[in-house]
Write a structure and sequence with these properties.
The protein is 13% helix and 15% strand. It contains one helix and two strands; from the N terminus they run βαβ. The radius of gyration is 14 Å and the shape is elongated.
Length: 54
């Protein structure tokens, strides 16, 4: 069974959109959210895909 770890493609994954407020961040700030040295949770895969056959 192959596994694949998938990481966020950009920093918008880390933005909480549950509030109605518009989030205004620069590209540099969004890129920093994907940097695990600045945002340690970025080192954890956001999705784990499993391919299984029956």
């Amino acid at each position: 069974m192959p596994f694949e770890e998938m990481y966020a493609e950009d920093g918008t994954f880390w933005i909480d959109e549950s509030s109605g407020e518009e989030d205004i961040r620069s590209k540099e700030e969004l890129d920093a959210l994907c940097n695990w040295e600045i945002n340690p949770t970025a080192a954890i895969p956001q999705w784990l895909s499993i391919k299984a056959m029956k």
